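I had to read the description of the data format several times before I understood it. Each protein is reduced to its one-letter sequence and a matching series of backbone shape codes. The format is easy to grasp once an entry is in front of the reader. For illustration, here is how one protein appears when written out as sequence plus structure tokens:
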Amino acid sequence: MLRDIGGKALTPAEIVEAYNSGKGMDLSSDMGEYKSSENLLAYFKFDEGAGDVTLDNSGNGLSGTIYEATWNVETPISSVSDLDFQGSSSDLTLSWSATDALSDIADYQYALGSTAGGTEIKDWTSTGTNTQAFLTELSLSNGGKYYGTVKATDKAGNISDPLTGDGIVIDLSPPETGNVYDGPDSDISYSHSGSEVTANWEGFSDELSGIFYYEFAIGSSVGGTEVLDYKTVGNVPSHTESGLTLLQGEQYYVSIMAIDAVGNVSDPVSSDGFYVDMYPGAPAVLTVNPEPGTRFSLSDDSQIKIHFSEPVVDYSLDISSNLGSDLETVAQQDADSLVVTVKGPLTSLDTLNLSLFDILDKAGLTSDTTHQVSFYTALMADYNGDLKVNVEDLSQFVSLWPGLDLGPVTGDVPNLRAQLDGVANLRDVGVFTRMWHWSHSNTTILARTFPNVGDDIDVEQSPQSLMVSIPDEAIAGEVVVQYQTSSTDITLNGGESADRILINNKDAELGQIIVDFGYLKPVDKKQLIFDTKYENDPTITLSYIFYGRNNSIISMGTREMDLTAVPDEFSLHQNYPNPFNPTTTILYDLPEAAMVHLVIYDVLGRQVRTLVNQDLTAGYHKAVWDATDDMGRPLSGGLYIYRIQAGGYSKTMKMVLLK
């Protein structure tokens, strides 16, 4: 039975010698080559224990189970080295030794009682020369102390005095249980380690043989051992187990059993459990994408992605509209993130408020703060995202036409909500026009001064109107006319048609009219016509910008022009003074721009002077003649004829030069 102490197999004689030597196996000293401390694997004292438990006293943790063995409790008579406790109430083994120097031993007798020298349990019984007695079928009491007594008779008939052992106490009771706590000292509810568990315990006791060591186990349920089966940790009040693989958010329990000196095992006691939370503190929101304040599309679905500080298992989410609009949302949770989809359509110029609270992590911790962010919705018909609906948006509108959809809509401007029908029609034009007017009426629109790019604007003046020609390749544009309100009034002539969107905003107090146009179909002649009323030849300012396909700028610029009074018909007036010397003035009226020829002839019909030969704008014009010919030579007095040709108009009149 006693083998492999210090790595050496002992012979039976060596075993007997080691046992009968009366020397304890003290680990602090070496006892022969089989007790060398550097070779020691395990130290089993087979006279200390009970049942099938074997205790390793080496500290190497090799305690185990013995099968088909009994415990030798009482020591030989001449050298008692016995146990104080045993865990069996029905069996008991007595052992002794004795010598007789003269006649040798002939017989041994033993007895067992509950007092020193007593025989009431087992009266004197002979074993012959056998130095061991195996008592069975006993009924010993738990906590009772029993004494073995032996006497020897030699071959000469001499009887020795009885020799009684110091007694053995029957310990059938397991240790009393105490409390087990998670953590190194005070009880913890959360552990931030996924590989290490520490527990401490108190209150375990054993009034008889005393607690010899504790066993330690870990499971995911009370009393569970699937993480770590019971292992001996010694007679210590705490233990740390490393090298584990624990799962985030899972709850684990530590179980402790106390084993007394005779092998009685207490009921297991479990801690109240702890959660593995490798993310210290309650869960929190780390990031929100897109950034708060982002504007969402009115028609497309928008997504909000929220990242948490750790994996979460539950949350409370609220999304509301400042305008009270109904919102359809879908939330999809991943381990440590949440994706919230806000379904279109949305209401124009609305504010969406998102609140996230009661965020619960896998360890059971709940956030105690509410995370709030706000997002905004786009302005309907604002294609470039500048929160204004103007000519740039109109250019994109007509560029997309008919591949766009704005309406029909519900609600009031500007908080419109689209009910898209998938068809581009006048409803969509109407929605754009309403938003354009709202934008211009709610914003102080100052005429922009454009740098001159491309061709100059082509403006033609007639008696009561201005006609602005639009480049053939232009699909949209803006013309702004600024004028002096004291002397001038300008109004757009004409409106929308099936081919054209025409929107205007006139500020009579500011003296400004803004006209935006967009062509939905190709048109042969593109122009804007303004009705004009004015006095004293005022000056106006024209700012313009024309867009081609893909929102490209064809031309833009700013120019000033004088509004000249324009007659209703062509006319040539009598010169003054007449007769004259040396100069006279000739007045003529042009109701429209024309190529003008004003020529002077003598009485013989010879051309003597050309006064005007050029294109002129509509208006009231004059020419001064100084009575010289085309060579600058003075002419003699007499009758002269002057004639005008302008467009289809022609007229001749007479004048007299005095000398």
About this structure: Residues 588 and 621 are 5 Å apart (CA to CA).
